[in-house]
Amino acid sequence: MRKILFILVVLFGTTLNAQDVKESKSRMDEFVSQTGVIMKYQDYNAPKIDAMYYASTTTKIRKVMTDSGTKIYLIIRNKGKYNTRTASFTKDDIPEVLKAITLLQEESVSDLATSPNYLENKFITEDGAEIGYYISDSKLTWYLKLEKYGSDNTLHLKSINSVIELFQYSENKISTL
């Protein structure tokens, strides 16, 4: 009888403490999930990201028009083994990311010179996308994490240059739209 009571207490306690991890919606998801409005999308291809490990990324500029306004986003998608991960960057995110990359590039030189066993330096957007680098055993690797949660959400970059080109292109393209 004691064993059964113990098992019930443990199971009940585990059930009470279980928490659902809810993925937060991005600002783009919130905008495009409006109901009762007519919504028009226009997509424009953007430069590819040069990633390692057979990453299958697509990039585009998406203009979304509704009765309540127009928003433009840079969208980066990576098709993983089991799912597709997406990061969206608003018009205001793009200059912030470019500024952060410049600072990270400067810091990477001095960080690499300290020869740490491991070091990570990153910038996180309001929607949870990360751009940064890590140093492991004196080797510098840049990465772009598309979403906060889950697997297949990180792109390991061959170099940061293709990301810089993508964000510069996006900034210019958005200004013309």
Entry summary:
β5 and β6 (130-136) form a beta hairpin. The protein has a single domain (25-176), classed as Secreted effector protein pipB2 fold, CATH 3.30.2450. 33% of the residues lie in helices and 33% in strands.
Can you walk me through this structure?
This protein has 177 residues and is an alpha+beta fold. The protein has a single domain (25-176), classed as Secreted effector protein pipB2 fold (2-Layer Sandwich). The protein is 33% helix and 33% strand. The chain contains four helices and eight strands, in the order ααββββαββββα. A four-stranded antiparallel sheet has the order 1-2-3-4. Helix 3 (93-113) runs antiparallel to helix 4. The longest helix is centred in the middle third of the chain and has 21 residues, at 93-113. Residues 4-22 have low confidence and may be disordered.
| Count of spatially separate domains | 1
Give the integer mean of the pLDDT values: 85
Largest sheet: 4 strands, antiparallel
Helical residue percent? Answer: 25-40%
Number of helices: 4
Indicate the CATH topology.
Secreted effector protein pipB2 fold
Q: Spell the H/E element sequence.
A: HHEEEEHEEEEH
Distance between the termini: 72 Å
What is the CATH class designation? Alpha Beta
| Cα-atom radius of gyration | 21 Å
CATH architecture: 2-Layer Sandwich
Structural class: alpha+beta
Spatial sequence of strands, sheet with the most strands: 1-2-3-4
Low-pLDDT stretches: 4-22
SS elements, strand count: 8
Task: Note the overall shape.
Answer: elongated
- Which strand-content bin applies to the residues? 25-35%
